[in-house]
Amino acid sequence: MSSIIHIEETASTNSYLKELLLTQNIAEGTIVFAHHQTAGRGQRGNSWEAEEGKNLTFSMVLYPTFVIVKEQFILSQLVSLGIKAVLDKYTSHITIKWPNDIYWRDQKICGILIENTLGGGVLSSCVIGIGINVNQTEFLSDAPNPVSLKMITGKDCLLEELLVVIRDRILGYYRMLRGGDEEFIVKAYKSSLFRKEGYYRYSDREKEFDAKIVDVRPSGHLVLETLEGEIRTFAFREVKYVL
Ligand code: BTN
Q1: Tens digit of each residue's pLDDT (9 = 90 or more) over 86-100
Q2: Is the peptide bond preceding residue 99 cis, with omega within 30 degrees of 0?
Q3: Which residue's CA is minimally distant from atom 2 of ligand 1?
Q4: What is the model's pTM?
Q5: How far is the CA of 46 from the centre of ligand 1 (A)?
Q6: Cα-trace Rg, the chain
Q7: Does residue 40 line the site of ligand 1, with CB under 6 A?
Q8: How many whole angstroms separate alpha carbon 221 and alpha carbon 192?
């Protein structure tokens, strides 16, 4: 049984857990959960805002040595699905915005920061950092479109309870992957995508354009078809959704 390490305050649970892994043997599935993160880290070098005691900010360790490096995106997929499955119980309109943000309608409710350690062409360890806006109702940073569970449902939610169900759902999908059912995960991910049907506005480094999602490759690349019928493939950071 994997344990949950509760800590009062740390800069970043991802950094804390990575430090711990350097000096101790930590069981797979172990979680570090902080009541307060003073320097939470987001994607693209951004910071992650979470009011003390109001939100879930935690990191989990996995040892997916059976996953080859060029297919590591499957971990983002299964983690996003685990979180979505739980949030679906509280509200509708939860989707996964490629590559791995969790959205409610057009607003971000959860961010994920996965930091992998590679060895011999496989993933030796994987620190999965998850920030979910739960009971916070005012956001001060310049994050464009945050939303919390409380802003959606009007109710407070017990953080520890939510944490346990999310952990169990993620580990459930992880066992599925280990058991060989990758196809189920890939299909479920694609059918959960934000803006999965229809044309929307995107921007690359040069210009804005209208396109629809055609596919997400095992490498994690997003495949779009433009209004003009051109197929374009993007890595993370090469394209943005215009919201
Ligand atoms: C994003 O930018 O969308 C990713 C945000 C990830 C935030 C979580 S909070 C827990 C863990 N520790 C961190 O420093 N970051 C992640």
Answers
A1: 999 999 999 999 999
A2: yes
A3: 42
A4: 0.97
A5: 9
A6: 18
A7: yes
A8: 16
